[in-house]
Amino acid sequence: MSDQALFQDVVRKRRSVRKFEAGRTIGRDALQRIVDCGRWAPSGANVQCWDFIVIDDAEVRDRVMAVFLKQAQRLVDHAKGFPAVKKTYLSNTGAIVLVLGDPRWKACFPHATTKEWDAEYRANNEAIFLCSLGAAIQNIQLGVAAEGLTSAWLSGGGEDETNRELAELLGYPPWMKAYGTIPIGYPAVDQNRRYRRPLSQSLHWNAYEPRQYRRHAQIDFYESTLRPFAMYREEESMNAWPDRDEMLGEWTEAFVGPLSNPDGVLEPEANFSSPRVIGQATKRRKT
User: DSSP per residue over 221-234, as a string?
Assistant: First the structure.
């Protein structure tokens, strides 16, 4: 089998799993190989703006879990409508990797020489910083899959309150941030692939294809109604859902067909900084 085929198999094996076999440990040799995958990720200006904390001590793991139990409850209390997951499953992980972002390295990215361009380059530098960290997090998750293990990506460590508690517990400067928290373990059950947008909708050749654009109302529908199902159902294609037509309704073709926007009409920018629609999955959200 070619290296390309092997790599693509690893990519497809990666899962976000929250059910681990209890009592299993992971050797430090494997954990070092996994973290080394993160070390080889690309970064802006090659600054490598990350540090990796690996937690393989059960007592420390349980203290980290306690932080995330409080984080999950804050989601329930203050982010109603989002499908919060209890973090008790962390007790069964063999290890947890925290990917810390060090913001000082943004000084190495391009900076404006005039006030006129300052906002543009500040925003661009933030994007470079976050994309660099995302590349490291993804590399680690692929390293996990290559070892025959499984993982998830908890973004909650990047929330200010959670990060303060993690920094106090683990001893890193609170102005750094745990943008990625990756629990690693042995899967307790086989995990099928989660929903993936059809390649025919997301791949554009030589120019943006307007017929593959997703309309504002489609995003509103996904956020307010479809999101909890698309996040957690174990089917790569929504066509495999037995209740597909009931769940998707008028948006069926937009989600499973070759084109999401057949008329090719594009829309002006709209404000999506917060949810805009109340749907069946978000009725508990405060307005």
Answer: HIIIIIHHHHHH--
The region, left, alpha or beta by phi > 0 then psi within -120 to 50, assigned to residue 27 is beta
CA angle 49, 51, 54 (to 5 degrees): 155
Yes or no: domain 3-185 corresponds to CATH 3.30.70.370? no
Cα dihedral sign, 117-123-128-129: positive
Tell me, yes or no, if the pTM score tops 0.85.
no
pLDDT in tens, 232-284: 888 889 999 999 999 999 999 999 999 999 999 999 999 998 889 888 777 66
Query: For 82-123, what is each residue's pLDDT tens digit?
Result: 766 677 778 788 999 999 999 999 999 999 999 999 999 999
Of 164, 170, 144, 167, give the one whose Cα is nearest residue 55. Answer: 170
- Which residues belong to CATH 3.40.109.10 in the chain? 3-185
